[in-house]
Every structure is written in structure tokens, then in C-alpha cells.
Design a protein that fits this description.
The protein is 43% helix and 21% strand.
Length: 595
């Protein structure tokens, strides 16, 4: 036969079933607690939950503490009393006269407590009112207190059944966070409330775990992480499951330093391995922290700000990051740029400037690079360095690339109509070139305008997207075979690899401005550029130095034998008509005679 469970085991089981075990507070009960205090004109009212060794006050008014030792619990007598326990004068009752609540502040004298009895008959705590003076509490008062206790139990059961518990972790969900936040903040003194969000397994890693182990071990991993976090914050804060691998809570702390210490302590606990399908997994830990105004009204915006700060921790590869209004504003601006771009294309807010490229020997123009510009109707001129990365993170980049191709090719045709053949370099995004139809679309645009393929150079940036077998490789090969030259742009700005470039039909390597900046004064910079240039020549590539701004740089590049240059020293980006003048002037200027 199975042993009969003890009353303590039964109470623990009910607390777990109602998801009250370990919960620091339940703001949803605060209205009932306040009603009890108002109804009986009592300065102290609270909802107590009895644990193994502690009594926790999950909703309270008028008490300076959130818990007491079970040995000091008056409510422990209430739950076994069979009804409402009334003690008119605690000082006169030998059971309670030495209780710290009586002998010390707040020096309470009166107690009335109605047990909180679950449907299975197990009492888990009590709804209580107390006073600093002896009082009577008649039968009608006891009935009213018992009725309010039933409302508390009903609220707890409703909370359990209303879908506000996350099915994976069993913790209060994001919806419960929205419901509880006003009550949580109402208990905090001004300037002491801090919201914290924690990601215990970043999404790419969670996807990888799911693919390898399946969803059930992944859910078990998340559940165990939630239990570990809840245990670490027991009696400190209620933990809410607000995302797949993300949890949030609000704490009251005296200073920001205390908050950071708490987060670092949590990190130490959370980074211990967790078991998933008999495999020890190493959790991740990134936290976002946000100071909260007690009058905070928008819980949705608070979670949003926590995400901003958490992703700041991701980007900085730090364990935590405080909310930054500046970062938030930057993200809002980026979102606005993304949302305004399509309208801007339709309204003519974008245009192309062109920066000529020159031979280093003779400094004669040979081509021009198409550079997109955006004059926003309200924000003014926007730098490509700002809006291009925004577009690259969205589906906009393909639409913008299409617009650049059409506009630049139309300009080439217009120049030809005016008697000038000016080759144009056009930047292609990795996203665009990875489309299956990219080469077909480019070829159709050229054929529609009856343009020689040799008039176009397409610039691409190196990266993992150029892996063998990718659609981009096939497009590059087809373009090169058709007579379009292909250039690697910004070479040397990051991790540059000649090993795979040597297998591509590349015509030109454009050395990034960051390589060129120091060559006039640094021997190491000169050595690096010289090595890249000579290796490129050995592989049959044309070399172009970008961002040339000084004559001293030109002299060094000339000594190295660099083929072409581009930069402010010779020409800034300019309108199409100005490009025409550059090429017309070069046509009537005699070439320098070599001696």
C-alpha cells in the first residue's frame, strides 16, 4: 500500500498545482486584500501561503515584511481551526503573546484569519486582517471574511485555468505579466523598481537543439531552466515566461549596482549545464535591464524596451545591457527608414550619383560607380551607410537593387545617346544575387535597352554566401561568360579569402578604403596592400584602390603598380551631367607622353 500523504505533502501538491509554490507575490489578489482591509477598517490585511519552513505573504497591505518563519505563523493555527480563527487580543493569548509581530513593530494585537481551502479540502493559507488594538469580530464579520477567502481561492483557480500559465514551463505567461505589472509596481517605492528579461538559450541555438534532439527535449530544457530561475528568485520576484526561451521579472532594489549583482549571480547559476535527452547542454545567458517608473502604464512597451536592452547584450556579447534610449531611438529610426523606403522610390526621393574611376597611370576616367542617395522628405539627406544596412535586413534590398539597376542602365543608355560610352559599376546585394532569377533579370534589362554587356561591371562583396554550389556562383559564371565584368568590392575590410576567389571568374579586386588610409605613413599598411595587389595580379585580377584622398597615397600606389584609383582626390560622387563633362574633357585632353 502507498503511504498516506501528510497534510504538508498535500498542501505542497495543491500549491504546485495552483502554481503558487515559490511565487513571491500575486498582485492580482491585491484588490481583494485591499477590500478586506477596507471592509473591516483594519490597517493590516494579507493573503498568506504556508510552506515547509516559511509563511509567505503573496498579497498584503500594512505589513513591513513579505514572509515570516513558520514558527511565528498565526495563520498555521487558522488553517487547522476548521473555520475563521479570531484572536481578540494577541497579548492575552499564550499561543501568540511572544510572537514577533506582537512584541515588535508593528505591535499587532488583533487577528482574524479565514482559511484558504482548495476544492479537495486542503487548506493552503489564509486571508487575514490584523489591528494594533484589541477588537471584537462577530459572526457576521467572520462570514464576510470567509466569503472574501473564497474569492481568493476562486481567483487562484481561475488564474490556473485561464491560460495565463505557459504550457511549457508552467510559469505565469506574458499575459499574466501584463495583468500583474500595475500591482507589482504599486508596492515599489519610487526609483526602486527594475525590470529584467533573461534569454537562457538564443533562438538560433534553440532551433539547432530542436533539430538535433526534437521538441520534447528542448521543452524539457526550457522547463528546467525556468525552474532553476524561479528557485533562484524565490521570495525575491515572480518569474514570467514571456518568450520561447525568455523570462522576465520585476525586482525592488535600492540601487542599480544591486541589480547588476543580482543579474551576475543569476548568470552564475543559470550557466550550469542542463540535461536534455541525456545530453548535458550549456545554457546561454543574456539579460536586459530597465529601470521602471512606478507610474508605468504600458506593460507592452516595457517588454519592448527589455528586448531592446537584451539585444544590446547580444550585440555586445555581454551578460547584460541596460536599456538605452539612444539605441531605442536608432532602432525606431531604422524601422521608419524601412517603412518609408518603398514610398520614397515611388515619389522620387532616391537618385543616383556617380563617382568616376581613373587609371593611375595618366589619371584618365575609365568608368563610374553608381551610388544611391536618399533625400528623405522630413529627415533630410540619409547616408547610405545608415540606410543600406537597414535595407539588407529586410526584403527591401531586392526592390532597391532592382531600382538601382534600372536607373543606372537608363543612364548608360542616355549617355550613349549623347555620344559617350561610359561603363558603370553597380553594386549587387548578396540577397539579390542569391535569387534563382537574378541572371535572367539582369540579362533581360540589358537586352531591353540594347546595351552591350561590356558596359556593365557588377560589384559584389565577399562572404559565405559565395559558397560552392550556391545560386550566386552560377550567376557570376554566366555573367562573366556573357561579357559582364565582376568586381569584388571592399576587399580587405573584414575577413578576406583569396582561396575561394581564385575559383571565381572575377575580373577586378577593389581594395577597401581602410587599407589605403595608412599607406602613406605606415610600412605595415604598405606591405599589406602590396601583398594583396601582387597576389591579385598573379591571379589575373585588375586592382582598384578605393578612397584615395591624398597625393602621397597616389605616389605609393603608383610605385606598387596599382591599376586604377577611385576617391575624393580625383573626383567626388557627382550628377550624371558632371560625369559627362569629366569624360568629355578627358577626350579632348592629350594623353601624357611617357618618357
Amino acid at each position: 500500500m502507498s503511504p498516506t500523504p501528510s497534510p504538508l505533502d498535500e498542501r505542497r501538491a495543491v500549491l504546485c498545482a495552483m502554481q503558487v509554490d515559490g511565487v513571491a507575490s500575486l498582485p492580482a489578489l491585491d484588490r481583494i486584500t485591499a477590500l478586506a482591509g477596507y471592509t473591516f477598517n483594519a490597517p493590516v490585511a494579507f493573503v498568506s501561503v504556508l510552506g515547509d519552513v516559511k509563511q509567505r505573504f503573496i498579497s498584503l497591505i500594512g505589513l513591513p515584511m513579505a514572509q515570516t518563519d513558520m514558527r511565528s505563523s498565526i495563520c498555521a493555527h487558522a488553517v487547522t481551526s476548521g473555520g475563521v480563527l479570531v484572536v481578540p487580543d494577541l497579548e492575552q493569548d499564550p499561543r501568540f503573546r511572544d510572537n514577533p509581530l506582537v512584541t515588535h513593530s508593528p505591535h499587532l494585537r488583533f487577528y482574524a484569519g479565514a482559511p484558504l481551502v482548495a476544492k479537495n479540502g486542503v487548506a493552503i493559507g489564509a486571508l487575514c486582517v490584523m489591528d494594533t488594538r484589541p477588537r471584537t469580530f462577530d459572526e457576521r464579520d467572520q462570514e464576510q471574511l470567509a466569503t472574501l477567502a473564497e474569492l481568493v481561492i476562486a481567483q487562484l483557480e481561475l488564474r490556473n485555468l485561464s491560460g495565463n500559465l505557459d504550457p511549457t514551463s508552467g510559469l505565469p505567461s506574458r499575459h499574466q505579466f501584463h495583468a500583474d505589472l500595475p500591482g507589482i509596481l504599486a508596492r515599489c517605492a519610487e526609483g526602486t523598481a527594475y525590470a529584467i528579461a533573461v534569454d537562457i538559450l538564443d533562438i538560433p541555438r534553440a532551433n539547432q537543439v530542436g533539430q538535433v534532439l526534437g521538441l520534447r527535449p528542448l521543452e524539457a530544457l526550457i522547463r528546467r531552466a525556468g525552474v532553476r530561475l524561479r528557485t533562484a528568485l524565490e521570495d525575491v520576484a515572480t518569474v514570467y515566461h514571456v518568450g520561447v526561451t525568455r523570462f522576465a521579472f520585476v525586482v525592488e532594489m535600492p540601487t542599480a549596482g544591486h541589480v547588476e549583482s543580482l543579474v551576475l549571480e543569476l548568470r552564475t547559476r543559470m550557466l550550469r549545464p542542463l540535461m536534455a535527452a541525456a545530453v548535458p547542454m550549456s545554457p546561454r545567458f543574456h539579460a536586459g535591464i530597465c529601470a521602471v517608473d512606478p507610474d508605468e502604464e504600458d506593460s507592452h512597451d516595457l517588454l519592448r524596451r527589455l528586448l531592446v536592452s537584451m539585444h544590446g547584450a547580444f550585440d555586445a556579447r555581454q551578460p547584460f545591457c541596460w536599456y538605452s534610449a539612444q539605441r531605442d531611438e536608432k532602432m525606431h529610426r531604422a524601422y521608419r527608414l524601412a517603412s518609408d523606403a518603398e514610398r520614397g522610390l515611388q515619389n522620387g526621393d532616391f537618385h543616383l550619383d556617380y563617382q568616376p574611376r581613373f587609371t593611375l597611370d595618366g589619371r584618365r576616367p575609365v568608368s563610374a560607380e553608381a551610388l544611391i542617395r536618399w533625400n528623405h522628405p522630413t529627415l533630410g539627406p540619409i547616408s547610405p551607410g545608415e540606410f543600406i544596412p537597414v535595407f539588407e535586413r529586410t526584403a527591401l534590398i531586392d526592390e532597391v537593387t532592382n531600382w538601382v539597376l534600372d536607373t543606372a542602365l537608363d543612364q548608360v543608355r542616355a549617355w550613349r545617346a549623347q555620344g559617350q560610352d561610359i561603363p558603370v559599376s553597380i553594386n549587387l546585394s548578396s540577397s539579390y544575387l542569391s535569387n534563382a532569377s537574378a541572371w535572367h533579370d539582369i540579362r533581360s534589362k540589358l537586352e531591353h535597352r540594347a546595351l552591350p554587356f561590356s558596359m556593365i561591371e557588377l560589384e559584389i562583396t565577399e562572404g559565405e554566401w559565395l559558397r560552392p554550389g550556391s545560386p550566386a556562383i552560377g550567376h557570376i559564371a554566366a555573367m562573366a561568360q556573357a561579357g559582364i565584368t565582376v568586381a569584388i568590392d571592399d576587399f580587405g575590410s573584414g575577413y578576406s579569402n583569396f582561396s575561394y576567389l581564385s575559383d571565381l571568374p572575377i575580373h577586378t579586386v577593389k581594395l577597401d578604403k581602410s587599407l589605403i588610409d595608412g599607406i602613406a605613413s605606415s610600412s605595415r599598411a604598405r606591405a599589406k596592400v602590396s601583398a594583396i595587389h601582387h597576389l591579385a595580379h598573379e591571379l589575373g585580377y585588375l586592382t582598384v584602390a578605393e578612397g584615395v584622398e591624398q597625393e602621397a597615397q597616389m605616389d605609393v600606389l603608383a610605385d606598387m603598380g596599382i591599376d586604377q584609383v577611385q576617391g575624393y582626390l580625383l573626383a567626388r560622387p557627382m550628377a550624371p551631367a558632371a560625369v559627362m563633362q569629366v569624360f568629355e574633357q578627358a577626350a579632348i585632353t592629350p594623353r601624357p607622353v611617357k618618357v
